[in-house]
Design a protein that fits this description.
about 350 residues; single chain; alpha/beta; Rossmann fold; 2 domains
Length: about 350
């Protein structure tokens, strides 16, 4: 089992000292909700001799090994199919067969929830209780969420739940009321960059800082960007490339990655339009687009980008979608370059 990030480890130790059968971890994606949930489950199920309740999992006992290889009889990870595949978590044999005919679901479906609840009724296989981890809990559809309510209120024996949500406001109030809530803590100053240095040893400090800014300060999201092929130097050039509509320079980016980047660019330009600080791009990266387009133009562009997310994961043609997104960006951002030209040069 890999070492926990320091801000996650601190929270795990605090939470292990608390009581309760249902815990709700909340906060923006990229701070380590799933990692914290799994750390708690691993500690509760750890079989190391002499382990104190507040201790983290040892990482070496048979229970920790079973969790690492996804075979623990007393742990159920309830994730959307797409999320499980992205994290290398194996799906059951029937689901794997089904995915030969359809795309992985991005919801926690009721069939998966029913299987988890059936697991909750069983006797503990290793004698240390059972744990169900639900992530992201806000991906439960209405039927799945309602199916969970009864068991969440009156769990059997040593059953514990850890729900982790990026948007807890989307959960049913009746689910939130049955859980002890914990808001994810952000890393301390310098802690995120120190952690990224270990995760991205080949990158230089400037590139790690760029990726962390691109992720809004969330270190696990920064690592995800790097693994998606987001080049830090290209990120710094993105505002200028978007103004030119340069699809060739960005053709290696998948449509969802580019769409996320353009939404962040629209956000930062909207901030600059009202004299607020940008969040995802350094001010010098936005210099080519100063002054920014009118706020109304940026708002309209952001709304169109949100609509495009519906087809970003499975576009008819990734290349055509990239070109369309950058053409739209160039059309919107052209207003800023036109505003900077001397009056005599304007059409």
């Amino acid at each position: 089992m890999s070492a926990l990030a320091p801000w996650i480890e601190r929270q795990a130790r605090v939470l292990l000292g608390q009581r309760g059968h249902a815990l709700l971890l909340t906060g923006p994606a990229g701070l380590g909700q799933f990692e914290l949930a799994l750390a708690l489950a691993s500690a509760w199920l750890c079989e190391a001799p002499g382990r104190a309740p507040q201790d983290l999992a040892c990482g070496h006992c048979p229970s920790c090994h079973a969790i690492a290889v996804h075979t623990h009889a007393d742990l159920r990870l309830l994730l959307p199919e797409a999320e499980a595949l992205a994290r290398g978590i194996p799906l059951d044999e029937q689901t794997q067969k089904d995915l030969e005919k359809r795309k992985p679901s991005r919801e926690i479906k009721v069939d998966a929830m029913r299987a988890a609840l059936e697991f909750a009724q069983r006797t503990s296989g290793r004698g240390r209780g059972k744990v169900v981890v639900v992530f992201p809990a806000d991906r439960m559809n209405a039927v799945s969420a309602n199916a969970l309510l009864k068991t969440l209120e009156e769990p059997e024996g040593g059953l514990r739940f850890v729900l982790a949500a990026n948007a807890s406001e989307r959960l049913l109030p009746t689910i939130r009321s049955r859980c002890t809530a914990h808001g994810l803590a952000w890393p301390r100053d310098g802690e995120a960059l120190d952690w990224l240095r270990g995760e991205l040893p080949a990158a230089n400090q400037a590139d790690r800082q760029t990726l962390l800014r691109a992720a809004g300060g969330r270190p696990l999201a920064a690592l995800a960007l790097a693994r998606q092929g987001v080049d830090a130097a290209l990120w710094r050039k993105l505002p200028a490339l978007a103004r030119r509509g340069d699809a060739a320079a960005l053709q290696a980016w998948a449509p969802p990655v580019l769409l996320d980047a353009l939404q962040k660019l629209a956000h930062d330009l909207s901030c600059r339009a009202v004299d607020a600080a940008p969040r995802y791009f350094a001010p010098e990266d936005l210099a080519a687009l100063m002054p920014p387009p009118a706020l109304a133009d940026l708002t309209g562009w952001a709304a169109r980008l949100r609509l495009a997310t519906a087809t970003a994961e499975h576009p008819f043609s990734a290349g055509l979608m990239l070109e369309a997104l950058l053409t739209e960006a160039s059309r919107t951002l052209g207003a800023s370059s036109a505003a900077q030209r001397p009056r005599a040069e304007r059409p």
